Amino acid sequence: MTYCVGILLEQGLVLASDTRTNAGVDQVAIAPKMHVFEQPGERLIVLLTAGNLAITQSVVNLLREQLNGPEQGSHLHNVQSMFEAASVVGAAMRSVHARDGEALKEHGIDFSASILVAGQIKGEKPRLFNVYAAGNFIEATADTPYLQIGETKYGKPIIDRVVKYQTEMMDAVKCVLISFDSTIRSNISVAMPIDLMLYRTHSLHGNCRQRLTEQDPYYVSIRKGWGEGLKAVFSSLPNPDWSAS
Amino acid sequence: MTYCVGILLEQGLVLASDTRTNAGVDQVAIAPKMHVFEQPGERLIVLLTAGNLAITQSVVNLLREQLNGPEQGSHLHNVQSMFEAASVVGAAMRSVHARDGEALKEHGIDFSASILVAGQIKGEKPRLFNVYAAGNFIEATADTPYLQIGETKYGKPIIDRVVKYQTEMMDAVKCVLISFDSTIRSNISVAMPIDLMLYRTHSLHGNCRQRLTEQDPYYVSIRKGWGEGLKAVFSSLPNPDWSAS
Q1: How far apart are CA B198 and CA B179, in angstroms?
Q2: B161-201 pLDDT tens trace
Q3: In total, how many domains does chain B have?
Q4: Mind listing the pLDDT tens digit for each residue in A180-219?
Q5: Among residues A51, A46, A44, which one has the least CA distance to residue A6?
Q6: For residues A112 and A108, what is the distance between their CA atoms, to the nearest angstrom?
Q7: Residue A226 lies in a domain
Q8: In this structure, which of A150, B47, B88, B122 has its CB flanked by the most CB atoms within 10 Å?
Q9: Closest Cα partner for A210 from A195, A192, A191, A229?
Q10: pLDDT > 90: what percent of chain B?
Q11: Is residue A245 in a domain?
Q12: Torsional class of A114: left (φ above 0), alpha (ψ -120 to 50), beta (otherwise)
């Protein structure tokens, strides 16, 4: 499993992915799921991947190879909009499906993959897409300014309660870390470290990228403060006065 | 979808189910998912059902008809242990599978059903089981004293944080209602009213059974207090001091 989330804010983008990959419970490893395509001053495009690792790594490799391919082809360094970028990622997904889909089917393996495509290209605002395994995609809007892939449920309620398009970036970061904490506690196939990227609107380069380990002092303080805070709120609420005797 | 949860406490059992049933988004109705088999002073057995309504209603009907069947047969009013009760429910599940399984398969419909079987029979402690579609089952233990069926993820973190086997019954009730609130907010196919049953160990009758509507004053106060409390805890936690400029 995997957990990735992208939040589209007026101030920019907050992007995060876990790093655990597993094939069965007895084959567990760390693999990055955040892939950055950057031309400072021109564009920053970030991919967050979930699903079958062989598929998503193939897609990312195809996209990297396209950058050095024939000049007339569309790729992530020459597309003129994030919509086009999502189309290019979708097309790469379809190429991998054309190559591997039938063989996977014969082995009873789902063609499961989804990729968040987030970023900004000069001349546009920051945008955020979710590209599905079929290569089609949806875009986040100011009404619901986030997209999740992978193990999405445990970490969703806190985002729903807190995040809006106008939310301050550092509040959104705090919320994302709480969302990861809830997910990591509940699903053993999602795990630290967390790759995190903050992007400020119109900066056109990756502003703050870091990998948070379990020992990161800020993550530790959020984890502890949130857990203790929840218990305190729980205790402060009244019990029902129904008799059950 | 559905959400049902059963908690096994030293003090007894807390059992709850939502009441929404739907076949597609354009056919939504209320159906009880809590079914009580009671012989006051002798036994209380409660079934909470999730999955295909035609299957679970058939199982419950079979179990009711067995009560008036030939005397030598096992049924929920003559079994000597909750383990036997779970076996009887599992056998009823298998009967329905034998009758309907093949036809459902032909129509591409999963045989999806699960049933929590909770209660106490004189001479035993209260026990709690989860009977699967295949008729096999697991039992809750003091280490993880709860079982959920249906839409289980949204409402699980708060139970994990708060409930232990030694938890006071009314604290567990409060926790169950918060768990339902989180689930109902996130999944439109889980909805009020909530059927709730509290059972005190060794009382051998259903002690407090009620249906909570959206207007129930206690539920409203919990819902409001929890939402406001979460936001207050969130605000009180520090933001990261990373620059993202």
Answers
A1: 16
A2: 999 999 999 999 999 999 999 999 999 999 999 999 999 99
A3: 1
A4: 999 999 999 999 999 999 999 999 998 789 999 999 999 9
A5: A46
A6: 12
A7: yes
A8: B47
A9: A195
A10: 91
A11: no
A12: beta
Q: Which domain holds residue A186?
A: 3-235
Test the A interface: residue of B158, B233, B235, B241 with most A CBs within 10 Å: B233
- Nearest alpha carbon to residue B8 among B103, B104, B183, B146: B146
Angle at A5 between CA A198 and CA A199, to 5 degrees: 15
How is B207-222 classified by DSSP, letter by letter? -EEEEE-TT-HHHHHH
Query: What's the N-to-C CA distance of chain B in angstroms?
Result: 45
> pLDDT tier at B243 (50, 70, 90 boundaries)?
low
Give the whole-angstrom CA distance, residue B2 versus residue B230. 25
* Residue at B240 is within a domain: no
Q: Which of A222, A227, A242 sits opposite B161 (nearest CB)?
A: A227
φ, ψ at A82 (rounded to 5°): -70, -30
Residues 121-160 of B with CB under 8 A from A: 153-154, 156-158, 160
Q: Which residues are within 8 A (CB) of B201 and not within 5 positions of it... i.e. 6 or more apart?
A: B10, B11, B12, B120, B125, B126
What single letter denotes the amino acid at residue B213?
Answer: T
Find the CATH number of the domain harbouring B139.
3.60.20.10
List the one residue out of B174, B155, B154, B160 whose CA is nearest residue B222: B174
- What is the rounded distance in angstroms from the CA atom of residue B84 to the CA atom of residue B134? 16
Token digits of residue B133: 């579609």
Cβ contacts of A238 on chain B, cutoff 8 Å: 174, 218, 221
Determine contact, residues A37/A78, Cβ cutoff 8 Å. Answer: no
Tokens 């819902």 identify what position? B223
Least CB–CB distance from B162: residue in A153, A182, A234? A234
A-contacting residues in B 177-236 (Cβ below 8 Å)? 178, 182, 185-186, 198-200, 203, 207-208, 210, 218, 221-222, 225-227, 229-234, 236
- Per DSSP, A67 falls in state T
Residue B244 belongs to a domain: no
User: Residue A150 has which token pair?
Assistant: 């992978």
